[in-house]
Amino acid sequence: MKKVLVINGPNLNLLGTREKDIYGEETLEDIARKMNAEAIKLNVDLSFIQSNHEGR
Fold this sequence. Notes:
- The protein has two helices and two strands, in the order βααβ.
- By secondary structure, it is of the alpha+beta class.
- A two-stranded parallel ribbon has the order 1-2.
- It is flat and about 35 Å long.
- Pfam families: DHquinase_II (PF01220).
């Protein structure tokens, strides 16, 4: 089984809550749910994390 790590960066946790006219209403959780569904179909072990850290 292949493993995939998705690392989402700063402020993506705000998707669906801020500036919906620009970024839409879909949340990061919605996106993770869709990606996990596809990963299952493809027999991929998906890890999905988000961090607002901007340092080294």
